[in-house]
Design goal:
alpha+beta, Rossmann fold, 6-stranded antiparallel sheet, binds adenosine-5'-triphosphate, Chromosome partition protein Smc
């Protein structure tokens, strides 16, 4: 498995559609200060489901949409498309090539697609979590992040290890199941009240 390409459309400084093609092995992105190197990395974590504006170096989520320059009007949507080579089957999906896309409009909300089919954030997270990539998998090491790991509390360090061991997916499923259980309990209580009233 390796990242094959990344397309940015209206994402941060990339107003026009821009595709970066990668080869297996090491890729270096070089360029002058402020030319958009970190924006490429932001696009990668965004398409994999990043939810924190701060992690994307913005104040709010809409800050990822091209905000305009003196010569170009702002855009109303941002889109990032990531293509992953899956010939080794590392991702639990029956395709040799997997495309994940995320689109966001100024009025908020994100649409995800996996191989052209509408998907939920959870689907994207689950698809990526077994492979060791994806949100909170620490495959993207930002500036200053090494320091924060070295200075982490034992609980935080345990969190990092749990993520690396693939526990995160099951923790998320457990949380979802507990929320459902809670909602069901509320419904049962309401039903009992109604039954008591009817009697
Ligand atoms: P450095 O080498 O200094 O870290 P860099 O190449 O990593 O720089 P980035 O931080 O990726 O550069 O890009 C910063 C540029 O992106 C700035 O010029 C900023 O104005 C622009 N930018 C960020 N968000 C947007 C946006 N929403 N719309 C338009 N431009 C944006």
């Amino acid at each position: 498995m390796y990242l094959k390409s990344l397309t940015l459309k209206g994402f941060k400084s990339f107003a026009s559609a821009t595709t970066l093609n990668f080869e297996p092995g090491i890729t270096c992105v070089v360029g002058p200060n402020g030319s958009g190197k970190s924006n490429v990395v932001d696009a990668l974590s965004w398409v994999m489901g990043e939810q924190g504006a701060k992690s994307l170096r913005g104040g709010k989520m809409e800050d990822v949409i091209f905000a305009g320059t003196s010569g170009r009007a702002p855009l109303g949507r941002a889109e990032v498309i990531l293509t992953i080579d899956n010939t080794d089957g590392a991702l639990p999906i029956d395709y040799a090539e997997v495309t994940i896309s995320r689109t966001m409009f100024r009025n908020g909300g994100s649409d995800y697609e996996i191989n052209g089919n509408k998907a939920r954030l959870l689907d994207v997270q689950e698809l990526l979590s077994d492979s060791g990539i994806g949100r909170e998998m620490h495959v993207i090491v930002g500036q200053g992040q090494l320091d924060s790991i070295l200075q982490a509390t034992p609980e935080m360090r345990r969190g990092f290890i749990e993520e690396a061991a693939g526990v995160l997916k099951h923790r998320k499923r457990k949380e979802k199941a507990l929320r459902k259980l809670e909602a069901t309990e509320t419904n049962v209580n309401r039903l009992n009240d109604l039954v008591a009233e009817v009697r």
